[in-house]
Amino acid sequence: MIIEQFKDEFLSHYSYAIVSECEQKIVLIDPARNPEPYYEFAKKFDAQIIGVIETHPHADFVSSHLEIHESTGATIYAHSLTGAAYPVEHFDEGATLSFGKIKLTSIHTPGHSPDSISVLLEHDGKAKAVFTGDTLFIGDCGRPDLRESVGNLQAKREKLALQMYHSLRDKLMVLDDEVLVYPAHGSGTLCGKALSTANSSTIGAEKISNWSLQEMTESDFMKALIADQPFIPKYFGYDVDLNRKGAPHFKAQVNQVEVIKQPEFEALNTAVIVVDARPESDFKEGHFPGAVNIVYGKKFETWLGSIIRPGEHFYLTAANSDQLEELIHRAASIGYEPFILAAFVTHSGDVFMPVLPLECFIANPEEFTIIDVRNENEVKKKKIFSHSKNIPLGELRERIEEIPADKPIVVHCAGGSRSAAGSSIIAAEFGAITPVYDLGAVVKDFGNSED
């Protein structure tokens, strides 16, 4: 038996291939949008992918379960509460899937969502590992507030938090201490708030170190779980529904994105937003009117799906063709590739952003309107400028009218990447009226931590 873990570092997502070497068969758990790595892995063992298990309809990435089924004939397994619109074999509590010396058993573990399952792996009759999806993470557990208004089955966070309390204690903590824990996410995901950087653990180790498995009352657990959860990007609900239906084939979709030479601005539809992924320094020296600077980096798809609404068309541009191709693929990982009206490489533009007069700002910060685009829980922990106004980046386009135009505007975050996007959004609205400045990485000189 072999357990192979795959990682999408940008979305902090783990997926798995379980190999029966004696039968040369593979079952996948929670595969990412691009199925090619799993096909290549199967070729190494000359093995057949016979099944795909979805622990729940994911909010933060698009799964390739339907494509794998259509391409290989593999059976898709999911809980009946999912309300799947794709061909599925229900994998409810106690259901099993056996191949070779391996038996996979479904454990219904609601809490992150009503339809969440964990999958217990037994080899030669002994429990070896549990794939916990978004129920149990290393150091944390899944958030309970993502299914209040999306999915075929919705539930309030309080109800799901209570279910999470019992799923952890009645379903997972009862497993043997040596059982390996393989979650669907690691540190950096927005599906939890305090995940470890480790990519696996054991039930015994989690009982000792994971806050959510410690002895506490239902009420105390629920309060702790609900408090201070990360923000919810706009795309999360869209992805839940797309995963419940099943996404189109990855290659066919990304190949449909039109890649063109850098156009003149007049050739673009001015009603369509331009997502410019170049470094902030390049963007400030010249960009298209109304462009938003979502910088190429580890969090590109998170901010793309937080600023651009599902269904909203946009142009995508980057510094070079390699980055452009990568970003098209990364947009597809959250299901945004159909919204790319065209993609192209940009070297310059007609719109410039002014350089902040830093000495003046330091000496007289009250003469500037300061917009803090960090999330509310970050501001609660530490407010950097006493008179700043907090509008989280993911809400900025919808709340732009709250920003006064009577003074120059300075935008900041925690380390510079979010303020690049935030200042570009505000400049598109106010740039002709009042100067808009990006404080950028200089914010670190004011005693703040990195983005």
Automatic annotation (TrEMBL):
<protein>
    <submittedName>
        <fullName>MBL fold metallo-hydrolase</fullName>
    </submittedName>
</protein>
<dbReference type="InterPro" id="IPR051682">
    <property type="entry name" value="Mito_Persulfide_Diox"/>
</dbReference>
<feature type="domain" description="Rhodanese">
    <location>
        <begin position="364"/>
        <end position="451"/>
    </location>
</feature>
<keyword id="KW-0479">Metal-binding</keyword>
<dbReference type="InterPro" id="IPR001279">
    <property type="entry name" value="Metallo-B-lactamas"/>
</dbReference>
<dbReference type="Pfam" id="PF00753">
    <property type="entry name" value="Lactamase_B"/>
</dbReference>
<dbReference type="InterPro" id="IPR001763">
    <property type="entry name" value="Rhodanese-like_dom"/>
</dbReference>
<dbReference type="InterPro" id="IPR036866">
    <property type="entry name" value="RibonucZ/Hydroxyglut_hydro"/>
</dbReference>
<dbReference type="InterPro" id="IPR036873">
    <property type="entry name" value="Rhodanese-like_dom_sf"/>
</dbReference>
<feature type="domain" description="Rhodanese">
    <location>
        <begin position="268"/>
        <end position="353"/>
    </location>
</feature>
<dbReference type="InterPro" id="IPR044528">
    <property type="entry name" value="POD-like_MBL-fold"/>
</dbReference>
<dbReference type="Pfam" id="PF00581">
    <property type="entry name" value="Rhodanese"/>
</dbReference>
